[in-house]
Amino acid sequence: MKQTKILKVDPQQPEIDKIRQAADFIKSGGLVAFPTETVYGLGADALNTKAILDLFTAKKRPLDNPSIVHVENFEDVTRLTLQVSTTAKELMKKFWPGPLTLVFKRSNIVPEVTAAGLETIAIRMPQHKVALTLIRESRCPIAAPSANIAGKPSPTSAEHVLEDLNGRIDVIIDAGATRIGVESTVLDVSVEPPMLLRPGGVSLEALKDAIDEVQLHPFAVSEKEVAPEKAKSPGMKHKHYAPKAPLILVEGDLSKVMSTIKELIANYWLNDKRVGVLATSETAWAYEADVVKSLGSRRNVEAMASQLFRLLREFDSENVDVIVAEGVPLDGLGLAVMNRLRKASGYNIIKAV
Ligand code: TXA
Ligand code: MG
Questions:
Q1: Per-residue pLDDT tens for 200-223?
Q2: Residue 216, ligand 1, Cβ within 6 A
């Protein structure tokens, strides 16, 4: 067991001595959790094989699932990749620093373990001051998956990281709750037209505004489980975002969703189950259940995205036997929210009719 050190920093003006302390751990092969604008990441030197292996162990992450590599300058992108297309350059100019991860063909300075055996590498330049300062002070690209135990909801606060990883990592930099609350959008620019692998902090609408064409990987937008051999991103195959209790997602017309959820609650109660409902501020009043939580207004998908993982984690301490969640609108960040809810349900989805 390690002693996990917590460094509280100012998100706007991070204290440089604290960031340097954390950077020293990265430089010597340690593991540091840090905030980004999306979720907290668990960072290690991307070019240090031993550190990356330790990262997989700490997170209990399967070795076939590579991490996103975080950079704070464009030269590192050139070093880590074989080729940067014109489209990729446009996207970087428009969306970096920010919640867009781009998948490139990788160069041979990237260790096998960092790439998890793939010919490609996923890179992003985060927008958070703490993240950028940490990368700069560490003087290396930082590989960072979300700082949760594999399979659990991603952490949007330092407390969530501590819950999962206390004693397993060296440092947690605590700069409060993250702003966006769902992970970055993953776009493969090693193919033409670029392919959306995971919806996230940059909306599909914004990508389509910036470039002519975007292909959608079926998994990124699917309501059903896609066969593992079709998974283009290793993360597509693995269980994700799951609270302790099974989650059932109800999609469709809102009034029908509400009546279906009410029927489900009645049925579970007949069977003496404790039921949690994940609702929205427009609908939460209508449910009588053991626990009702609201994601916020259906008219504000950004706000709903920022609350999603926190609420999923909160159900873990409510001792519910089952969680029933309402589907949300698919526009903007709604697509990312629905992708996470669908995965959290293990594709246990009811179409309300
Ligand atoms: O917002 C985020 O992206 C956060 C913060 C910390 O930056 N990170 C994050 O990392 O969500 P992670 O490891 O939890 O998710 C990375 C996703 C996984 O689904 C992984 O399979 C995919 O990106 N990925 C990584 N490298 C890839 C590659 N070379 N090709 C395709 N997919 C890749
Ligand atoms: Mg993750």
A1: 999 999 999 999 899 999 888 877
A2: no
